[in-house]
Amino acid sequence: MSTATLTHTAAFARLGRALADPTRAGVLLALRRHPAYPSDLADALGVSRQVMSNQLACLRGCGLVEAVPEGRRTHYRLSDAHLATALDELLRVTLTVEPDCCDGDGCTCA
């Protein structure tokens, strides 16, 4: 088994940052099944198109999604098919959370 490299650590940090925001997490979960247009993602997640644009820019910057031009429109997809599999596996994880630790307003474990 190989040891984690700085590249691996940076990739996990980017993914963690993406998953820490509910809108970005929703985008990644939506895109794991099929590509989508920003307006459709915004409608599905109940956010403005401007918010969606900002979140997609963040995810692009992290290397997690890519924009695919389609004539006058652009759709988005996960940048790597392995990411869909990884997200599916994460959805199968069962966590036991201390009730007083992570209440949705931030983790107080530290």
UniProtKB/TrEMBL annotation:
Entry-linked Pfam families: HTH_5 (PF01022)
InterPro entries for the chain: ArsR-like_HTH (IPR011991), HTH_ArsR_DNA-bd_dom (IPR001845), HTH_Metal-responsive_Reg (IPR052543), WH-like_DNA-bd_sf (IPR036388), WH_DNA-bd_sf (IPR036390)
Protein name: Metalloregulator ArsR/SmtB family transcription factor
Source organism of this protein record: Herbiconiux daphne
Lineage, opening ranks: Bacteria, Bacillati, Actinomycetota, Actinomycetes, Micrococcales
SUPFAM superfamilies: Winged helix' DNA-binding domain
Domain HTH arsR-type per the UniProt entry, residue ranges: 4-98
Regions annotated as coiled coil: none
